[in-house]
Structure formats: structure tokens, C-alpha cells
Amino acid sequence: MASSSGTGTGTSGSTGPNPAGPPATPGPEHSQPDQPSSTEPDAHRPRPAPDSIPVQPGAEKHTADHHATDHQAPAPAVAENHVAENHATAGQASPNGPVGGGTVADLAASALTGKERRTGQGNPAGAPLPMRRDGDRLRFVGAATRRIARGIDLDEIVMGLCRATVPTFSDTILVYLRDPLPVGDERPTGPLVLRLRRTDRLPQDRDTDNAFLATSAAPQPPPELSPVSAELCEVRAGGALAEVLRGVRPVFADAPAARAALPELLGENCDLEVPDGQRAILAPLRGRRRVIGAALFLRRPDRIPFENDDLLVAAQLATHSALGIDKAVLYGREAYIADELQRTMLPETLPRPTGVRLASRYLPAAETARVGGDWYDAIPLPGSRVALVVGDVMGHSMTSAAIMGQLRTTAQTLAGLDLPPQEVLHHLDEQAQRLGTDRMATCLYAVYDPVSHRITIANAGHPPPVLLHLGGRAEVLKVPSGAPIGVGGVDFEAVELDAPAGATLFLYTDGLVESRLRDVWTGIEQLREKLAATAQLTGPDHPPPLEALCDEVLDMLGPGDRDDDIALLAARFDGIAPSDVAYWYLDPEDAAPGRARRLARRALSRWGLEELTDSVELLVSEVVTNAVRYATKPITLRLLRTDVLRCEVGDDVPQLPRLRQARATDEGGRGLYLVNRLARRWGATRLSTGKVVWFELSRG
After folding, report:
1. How many H helices and E strands in the chain?
2. Which residue has the higher pLDDT, 503 or 168?
């Protein structure tokens, strides 16, 4: 760019010849004034300009253009202008300080002394530093796009755009987004409607003499505005605003198309005045496939207007913001789908079986991974029993959640068949192998019987449960670990243990007890100690509240303990006292219904429930009569007194009865109709040995 290395003259220097010596140099990075020619050995060699900054043509034209841009200001005013610009670049454009390693004081000193801060070279009086504005713009765009890119959700990206541009680039910004925002390849239906998403502005007492402002090292964020224009704007097809948005490129507000589009965008009763001249830029926000909004950049009348190069800055800001918004909308949709998938895979509410109280918790691994393979379930079984299940599929992705849903559905089906726990795990293992060779999971399946106060547990590679006794003693139950589900070709073993009244059983996944900071057995011991310490607070005769106990368990997690999702299922065993149970065997003969009525009447009299005698006798007679008709083995009759009166009739016939409407000429078929009308609830469950028909009546 220098015409000759021997003369040291260049294309961008002072506006006229230097009568005292050689011609003025193009700028502080080329050679020192009043120094020997560059042909001498110790002369400073010119440094080539970076590729990312365009080289400006002739010095005379550059200086004249710059003076014209600043409203024909005299040379000292231009110099002062660049002092403020240097401050702004150091304080706003780069969060780590100005490019080149200098400080704000260095930049200000170099501008005041007329010397370039890196080389110390002089600059002719009244001439701006070469490429000062282009460098500012490049650094500002880089810092602004980095700030926008840091956002993950929609609000963070829009806020990043506002915070990056106010006050460095504009005094006020209004961001409009399409309502609703389209997702991916969706084709929007209906008219194009823009909603005012956010507005930011500079306080009125802030100095805004220059395009790039000098601010402190820790600038205070500008306050958020209350809406100053219409919140909703419907873009008329073929109107001026639709034409500007279709053009995609930012335009000055004084352009004919934008002048007609602004009233449509801001509304008829807008309190915001758009300054005259090039002090407003309307920039469409275009995503990957369509326009998704618009941004309006405004400067106050006392601030210098935008230049043509500022349209390129606005275009870069709009492009990066629109693409970020597109990605945020897609991410939001995926997060919504993940939340819905996880919510449907886990129980919406837990059942309330007789003799046991339940509580559960689920925590995802992280906000960015809200789905996983952990699950829990509680399934009521015949005979007032309940199946407690907790499992963990490897990984915490959408695939893991889908596999978890299939295994949970399979477990519910197998539980409905009233299979032993070890048989349930065996069939789950077969199902996992059918899903794929690498589909592995751990699972613990337990069946609690409140009448016998016993629990049967089978394990498939899962952490052992912890039982908290009424007195405050917590123990890790000794259950054979077994192989994980999906290995294939292994047998599972079940153990039967005591489940005393007042005790609490905790089933959990390994995310609760295992992390990068501790192994699984250390975590299990910490869990046992935490439960014992919490139980001591309520005394030996009163177990701690179940919900509060679950919260206390989760409080044991430290900041670095959330490496995996967590599922927790707690069961408080209340049991059913033997005095509240009446059980008989009846032979399948014609006299069985009459005997069942007499036995039920005696039990109700003993319990003080004589007011239910007529209803119970009628319903017991109908259900037992139906069982006698088809059964070949003795029939079981059981009455349970809890908060309700429950009656269960079992036989060896697997076919379930169906409720139907009997015709007037039919001699039978009205037994279940009476049960359905008189009972509070009723149902029939198929067993491996037959079925059980049950009904419940409210007590008084």
C-alpha cells in the first residue's frame, strides 16, 4: 500500500504535503514522523493490515469523508470523537479488554497524544486514526455475536441482543417476534402477526455523543422498558411492512419503504418518536426458512446518525439473533417433548392400597437431559397386596426412556397375572432381549401382603432396599443381587422377609447413592445413616412423616452428586391387624351361598357393622352363587375391615365375569348388575390359579 519503500509515502495520511520534511506517512503503523527514511537499517518496517479489516483507499479522500461524516467538525473535534470511540471499544466490544492487550487508559492516551498505542508513532494533527471505525465495528460485532450465542432459550437470546446493542450501538431497541413462532419445517397458518417481545433503552441522562460509547469497566445494564408501542402487529399482505420484511436486508427508517412500514409496526398510538435522518434502522429477523420477526435500532437526535456500514452491523446482529431464536425454539420443542414423554412414562399419581402408604420422587440428571431410564411403580394386586417396582435402564436419553416405558408396561401386565416376583423378572429379561441385544436394565420387584405382614423381593442387579424400623433402626436388606435384565439365561431368586407395621421400605436407583465422588456402597451406607438420624428426631414410637422423609433423603445429595437421574419409592407399612380379617373356605355346593351369608353376618356383628348386613349378604350371595356354578375346587371368602369393608371371593376358574344388561325374560345375569349398583367399587382379577372377584362398601 506504500508507493515506495524508499520514500515512505502512502495512500492514507495527512490532507496535504508536509513543508518541513518528507511527506506525511499513512498512519501510526507505518513510520514515525520526522524520522530517517525506511531505507535505513533501523527504520520501522510497515506492518500489513489483517485480512479481516479492509484496507481503505487514499488518505485525502478518507480524511475528507470522515470530516463530512462528522458534520464538518474541525480537526480537534474529530480527535475527541475518537477518544470516546477508543473508550467504547475497550469497555464494550470485548469482555476481556481491548484487542491488542492495551487498556482503556492506553487507548485514551494514544488518541490525546496523537500516537498509536502499539508503536508510539505519531499522527498528523486533526487526522483520525486509520481504520479506527472499521476496527471498532469488527470488534463490536464479534463481542455482540458471542454474547447472543451464549443464550440457550428464547429469552436469553433476545436479552443478549438487547444488552449487546444498548448503549454501544443504539440508544433504544425494539424486538418483535412472530406469534406463534414456527418450529422447524412447520408451515404457519393464518396471517403474520408480530408481538413486541422486549424493549431496552439508554437512560436519558447518559452521554451519547458518539456511535461507540465509552463506559466503565463494569457497565450497569440498561433498564427494561414498558411497552412504548402496540404489543401486537398484524402484517398486512402486500403492505409496506410486508415488503420490508420480504426484502430481508436492514434499511434506514428514512427510506420510503421503511417510512411507510414503521406506523404499521409501532401502531397508530405509539408514544415513541423516530428521529429524523439516519438514526433508525429496521432489520428483519430471518431464520433458516422464513422471517420470524424484526428489530428496530434507534439513536437520539443528539447522537451522530448511523452510517452505511452500520447496516452491515445490523444485518450481522439480526442474522445471528434469528438463527439463535430458531435453534432455541427447536430446543424448547424437544424439551417439551422430553418432559411429556417422561411424565407419561412415570405414574401420574400413586394408588392408595389398603395397609400401605406410598410416596415417590423423581429427579432428572440435569436440565439439559430431562428424560432417563429410571422408573418406579406401585401396582395393586388381589388380596389387598401391592407390587412395588423400581428400575433403571442404562443411559438417560430418549431411547432409554422409550425402553423404560416398554419394560414398565410389561411389568404391569405381568403383575396383573399375579406371578411370583422371580417369574416377573424372568419375563422382563426375555422382553429386554426381544427389544435388542444391548437393552440392559436393573430392576427390583417386591410384593407386600398387609395381612401376613410379609414382603417378597426379587432383584435383578439393582441396589438393595433399605428398611427403616419404627424404633429408628435402619438396615440394608440382604437380597440376592442377581444379573441385570437383558443378560439372558440366568435365574432370579426371591426372598421373603418380615414387614412389621410402622416400618418404611425405600426403593431407589443408583443415582441416589453413586456418583463420581463416591462409590455405590459408600452411598448406601450414607443413606442408611441419614434415615436413622432422621428417624431419631421423631422418637421411637412415631415414624417421621413420609413426604418429609423423602425430602430429607434427597437433601443428602451434594453439588457433584447429580450424575444420573434418580427415582425413589417409599412405602410405609401399616398392615391389617388379624382381628380385622375374616377368612373361610367354602365347598362348591348349593349350600355355599347360604353359609356365606351366615358367616358374613357374624363377622359384621363382631365388628359393629350391622348397618351393612343387608347389603353384604345380598352381594356375597350373588358372587358366591356365580363361583359355585363353575368352580371345581373350594371357594375362598375373605372380609377385610379397614377404612372400608372389602369382600373377596376366589375360585379356580380363570374366566372373568362381565357386566351385561339382562333381558326381561332372562332367569339370571343380574348378580353383577346388583354389585355394580350397591358397591362403592368392585372388580375382578385373574390369578395364576383362577380369579378373585371383590367389592368394597363404605363404612357408615
Report:
1. 15, 21
2. 503
